[in-house]
Amino acid sequence: MQPDTFSELFSLFNAANPETIEWLLSVATEHEYPAERAVLMEDAWGNAVYFIESGWVRVRRHANEDVVTLAVLGQGDFFGEMAILDESPRSTDVVAMTAVKLLSVSAQRFIQTLFKDPQLHHRMLQLMVQRLRQTNFRFQLRHQPPAVKLANTLATLQEAYGHPTEAGIEILNIPSKDLADVTDISADDASKIMEKLLTKGWLQVDPDRNTITIINTKQLAHLAGHT
Fold this sequence. Notes:
Blueprint: H1 3-9, H2 18-27, E1 29-33, E2 38-40, E3 48-54, E4 57-63, E5 66-73, E6 78-79, E7 92-96, E8 100-106, H3 107-116, H4 118-140, H5 146-161, E9 163-164, E10 169-172, H6 176-183, H7 187-200, E11 203-206, E12 211-214, H8 217-224
Helix pairs in contact: 1-2, 3-4, 5-6, 5-8, 6-7
């Protein structure tokens, strides 16, 4: 991947020095995984930072026999950055939801890069604060109706990973269980609400491509409280 393409795809590197990006690409390792393959097991956290070149992954938490999806991440995002600074035991893993292409940079080299490039360091802090604010907003929604909470999840996914099309904004058709877990509602509620949004014409599903197109983006954002 060319440095310009890399910096455009990953907002983390928008302000990084060109030399920083070239060096990272020279030491990065490429990975490809099919759907439902484990990308990162719980005992591997802290070894590297991973950048999603294409595809979607789910971050899962294990609690006894239960598995809960904590987050769904798409193209242009990254994971593993917090674990390189935290050596506590992990009980999470990352699994491909679709075929994915990743780039990884070892923890040691990534930390060295942060110290060498203040702009990259600052941008990393900005994105981590942004994630914290999103988590706080979800916490504020905990007593809201399930429809509002689900609308927030869809709006957040569309803003972060959506691809514009003639019909609207396209994202992955996320399974109800994952969608429910991330939204903190029941799978039954998630299915019913999605059906209502489809009936209203706010969403459109393409089963062949396994995508959802958000047609009425303004109404969805209004329901989610993003306006």
